[in-house]
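Hi R.,

Here's the input for the adenosine-5'-triphosphate complex you asked about:
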Amino acid sequence: MLKEVFNKPLKWSAMKNLIFKEVDDLIIGSLGIVAFISFFVGGVVSIQTALNLTNPLIPRNLIGFATRQSVILEFAPTFISIIMAGKVGSFITSSIGTMRVTEQIDALEVMGVNSLNYLVFPKIIALLLYPFVIGISMFLGILGGWMAGVYGGFTSSDEFIQGLQMDFIPFHIAYAFIKTMIFALLLATIPSYHGYFMKGGALEVGKASTVSFVWTSVSIILANYILTQLLLSK
Amino acid sequence: MIEIKNIEKSFGDTKVLKGISTVFETGKTNLIIGQSGSGKTVLLKTLLGIHYPDTGTISFDGRIYSDLTADEKRELRTEIGMVFQGSALFDSMTVEENVGFPLKMFTKQTPKEIQERVDFVLKRVNLVDAHKKKPSEISGGMQKRVAIARAIVNKPKYLFCDEPNSGLDPKTAIVIDNLIKEITEEYDITTVINSHDMNSVMEIGEKIIFLKEGILAWEGTKKDIFKTDNEAIVDFVYSSNLFKKIRKAQNKEHGND
Ligand SMILES: Nc1ncnc2c1ncn2[C@@H]1O[C@H](COP(=O)(O)OP(=O)(O)OP(=O)(O)O)[C@@H](O)[C@H]1O
Ligand SMILES: [Mg+2]
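And here is the predicted structure with adenosine-5'-triphosphate in place:
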């Protein structure tokens, strides 16, 4: 399937429009929900950490540190991707699946358009911007943590920022974005596969979206485990 | 002219097409008729190259499809127009974008030339005030017209229609049938139409092939259909009382009852 996606590409002028449309649907359209979730979950991580610091010997700057670590390493790349598997993934499966059951894909093929290239390639390209979404999520998650920590009276702004800078390992950022790119590829291809190769009618489109969500999330979780093992353990 | 020889097609263990040979003539409306499930759509999609036949050859004016290179196949496909059973319009595009799509994809025409051609074919199918609408905003009959417009916009040599008038009222159905027949004659296209509608058969059946369970059980013209003694087709046609009567009347007229 992947080979066909890159085969016999369309005219660039047509492809360009498709890519813009996908960026709009998949990336821009997701920013709102991602921003909302990141900000508040970042806040909750910060509050939870603060509430669990009952031992006075542990420094308060741990709040900033814990928020940074959890948001950058796991929350933004992995859990936002699971949410995106629900939002973007089921959108991809149902839109391609609908085109399959209403013979729109056959129509493309009959005209001589390589339908896999037409449908899937622009999505893969659009999702190259996915790290940008995750970057925003990281920023807002930490911002949310800072606001909840400072305005909730759990820590001072200085302590929190000191915690953010503590034991900073640059490779963690690389690790997070390598994961993000792999997840982006999974988010573009698995839902496309389930939509493209589905059979049946409107009811099956709904089922295919659900199945696609399950498989995309399972793959993201497994890929996360494997990548963490490969990249972080010595 | 499209010539098919001994086409067989199976899905898994079920053989859907069991050795079909015939000729579809240029400038005529060729009808494939038969009961639901008899293999009409599969035959049409095999002609289109959406399904590959297990055996047999399909030749488009002498070009044998399976012998063509990938580029030649693509070239051939730009000469084909198809009207799908459910219209298969792209629902993210407006009516005029749908019709202009094959031109945008496969020709070097400027946007202005494309617009002119789109306006022309939409007018040809008598659709003048729906240019900016989405497929979901127009009626089924209008969708069929748009699908026909899209199929003929790139001046095809071959036109395939899968039940072009299913789901339409009898009056609109006849209008669509006649539109296809006119276009076929006007542009000298080889047109193949799937149908199980006896009205279409009587309106536009210049050459008819009858499929029964994947076998070509009968072929002829609409005139022949009332004279034949072939049991399979008589049985198919006779499922309508109206046509029983017509057959009797016709046969009396010809004095061969
Ligand atoms: N992709 C496929 N995979 C497996 N079997 C198929 C496939 N397409 C069609 N069939 C089978 O082939 C047979 C013929 O189907 P086809 O769609 O050609 O019928 P039809 O004559 O077009 O009927 P209708 O008038 O209802 O459209 C059916 O039994 C169908 O189940
Ligand atoms: Mg059919």
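One thing worth noting: Chain A touches chain B at residues 8, 10-11, 14, 98-99, 102-104, 106-107, 109-113 (CB under 8 Å).

Cheers,
M.
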